[in-house]
Structure formats: C-alpha cells, structure tokens
Write a structure and sequence with these properties.
The chain is built from nine helices and no strands. With 153 residues, the chain is mainly alpha-helical.
Length: 153
C-alpha cells in the first residue's frame, strides 16, 4: 500500500484489520513503520492538502473532511490546512470559475450562471462567502452586465 502513495496510520490499521491481523500485531508493525519514517500523519496531511488543493482544486472544508475520513488526527490536519491562506484559496477558486465560464453558454441567464458557479465551488469545499466573492469578482472581470450585488446578496 505504501508503494502506491503515502497513507495515514489509520488507513493502514484498517487495512491490516481487514486482512485479519490482530490489533497488537498491527500496532507493533505501525509503530515500526513510524520509527523508520514510512508512516507520518503530519507529513501525509501536508502532502495530501497540497496535492488536492493544487491539482483537484479542493477548498479547505473538503480537505478537512477528507483528512477526517482518512483518520488523520485533528492537530496534524489543522497544521496542514493552515498552509492554505485565504489568498491561496481565492486564487484557486478564481481559476476554477474562469475555467468553468469557458464551458457555460454565453447567453445563459445571469442568475443561473451565478448559481452554477457558486454551487460548483461549494461542491469543491469552498465556503459560501468565498464562493460569492470570487464569482462576483470574476463575472465583473469578464464583463458580464448587471448589478451582481442584487443577485448575490
């Protein structure tokens, strides 16, 4: 499992249990893997957050949920998530909105366009205020007419 990608300690423990290993044997094996540096939840969380934010465009909320599912301790997850600044998150969200705008019909109703864009960001784990702010700014930059504040507020 470690040859494919880094894993959290909890992921490995679940897999060993599924294979029928006792908790005692699993703990000893995981402790040894930790000693030699092959299992490190903090490093795993940092790598996961960087990769998923950069390449998949995930927001902090989605990343926090993914780390919880992988069994990463809260302290390790929080430290990794703190590496993503508000500016980083807004920049990545703006890139996603620009990319999505290219595939939307130009004559699409403005309200529907805003709902689709904000919904897309929400599904990727961006907060509502960040999503609205980014969509508003990008639509204004792209020259879409109308008062966006009426629709967004």
């Amino acid at each position: 499992m470690l040859a494919v990608r880094a894993r959290s300690r909890a992921e490995l423990a679940r897999r060993l249990a599924a294979k029928g290993y006792s908790a005692e044997v699993s703990e000893r094996a995981l402790d040894r893997l930790g000693e030699v540096g092959l299992v490190d939840d903090a490093a795993f969380a940092e790598q996961w957050v960087h990769s998923r934010h950069t390449f998949s465009g995930k927001g902090k909320q989605a990343l926090a949920q993914e780390l919880r599912r992988k069994g990463v301790p809260r302290s390790d997850a929080a430290a990794a998530l703190d590496a993503i600044t508000t500016d980083d998150e807004e920049t990545r969200a703006a890139e996603l909105v620009r990319r999505k705008l290219r595939s939307l019909p130009r004559d699409l109703d403005r309200d529907k366009m805003i709902r689709r864009l904000v919904g897309m960001l929400a599904r990727r784990g961006y907060g509502q205020s960040t999503a609205y702010r980014v969509v508003k700014a990008e639509l204004a930059d792209q020259g879409f007419e109308g008062d966006l504040d009426e629709t967004i507020d």
